[in-house]
Amino acid sequence: MRPLILIAALVWAGCAADTEPQPPPSNRFVYPTGIVHRDVPGAPEGSNGALYVASANFDKCFDTGAVTALDLDALGLPALGQASEEPLHITDLKVSSDAYVQIESFAGEMDLWTPADGSAPRLFVPTRAENNYLHAIDIEGATGLKCAQGGEARNCILGALSLTQNVAGSTEGVPRAPSPLGVSVAVDAENKPEVWVTHVEAADSPLGSAGSFRTYVVRVPGDELDVSSEDFLPLTGAGLAIGGAHATAIGSRYAYVSGRSYVANEVTQSASFLLRLIDRDDTSRVLETDLRSIYFTLEARDLALGTSPGEGKERLYIAARAPDTLLVVDIESAQGLRPRVSVVDSVPLPDGATSVQVIPRPGLADLVAVTCTTAGVVALYDAALGQIISQVDDVGLQPFGITVDTRANAARLYVSNFGDGRVAVIDIPDLGTAQDARLVAHLGARQGRDERRGTSTCSQEGEP
């Protein structure tokens, strides 16, 4: 990741050579990544809810990244299942002044915690620039955003939690979690939030030594927003090879961790595992599944829990790469000391398998949506048929994150297009015939692009 950051910094130097502040735009997205949909309590039946989108500011054309909240009912989207023949292009996002906050650049995934007591929901988004922050943002009403860690005005960087700086109990530079990317939120036995964060760059020890690398999954108390060395759960030791982690999915007893290639001393290292389990009851227990010996693929990216296939079992859907594959994995004895892993299906995917979203269907097997970043499509897998049943093309450039609004027997998907700065809207009018899924709209202006450099022009398309 570091070479990319250096390149981005050089581009930024050319885009913002003067010393005038360059805040990110509030009326469009800039390299969007994390995305979350939320039903708004008290909204009328048929409401589209609210959408929250993280802008990664990948080229550093602006001073910071951002999180933007959209009132979807204000945008003129068609009713679900009633779209026109051609997709709409909605560029006026109608962002109110309190529906936008600044975060650090290079945002990753985003997840939402909704407290059981009815208090304000909270968004969590990690960022990989500078101090490797985990940002927490409270939601007021439908789209009001407020920095949960203090901040100043609309700037949530001030007071944000660093996963590499001033970690209580750290020695010789560890533990720390450089380049945090994945985030998922669970609730513990006391109904308190656990925020699980992965990182894609290994930490050397001592700091700056370029040796003795370590990797972790960080479990952050989401209500306290503070960490100590005890919250960094090592992925190494006890005979386990060092490995980078991309994402987590939180089961009833175990946190499931996908393994990907990682960066150590500015060199990309191959993934050493595809799936490991961390015992939430005793986090010193990290279990190697040896999934690669069952099905060989270079690395894994996102993963998600599906509908249980039977008593005591949990099902995982894992997006793997090289070859790009959707792995369907069952975990037997998922609440026991010795869970067992089996691959029940492996289905080829278009290039660049990235994010996984499970769409439960009443009375039917899971429907699974996967963004395929290189191919620029969203693939839909039907667990009842064991195959890809639909591929939505023309979604946009480099689809990354995906979130879903499910209503009875229908669903609307929202997909962040990292490469063109828009959000794609996909309707599935009947989950029983998901092959009829279709693109119905794009939200936001397309970001300008310099095709010679493969970077943005620091403006939206059509601007000078």
From TrEMBL:
What SUPFAM superfamilies does the record point to?
A: C-terminal (heme d1) domain of cytochrome cd1-nitrite reductase (SSF51004)
- Residues of the signal sequence? none
Record's compositionally biased regions (Polar residues): 455-464
Region: Disordered; residue ranges are: 445-464
- Name of the protein described by the UniProt record: Lipoprotein
Q: Which organism is it from?
A: Hyalangium rubrum
Instruction: Please name the taxonomic classification of the source.
Output: Bacteria, Pseudomonadati, Myxococcota, Myxococcia, Myxococcales
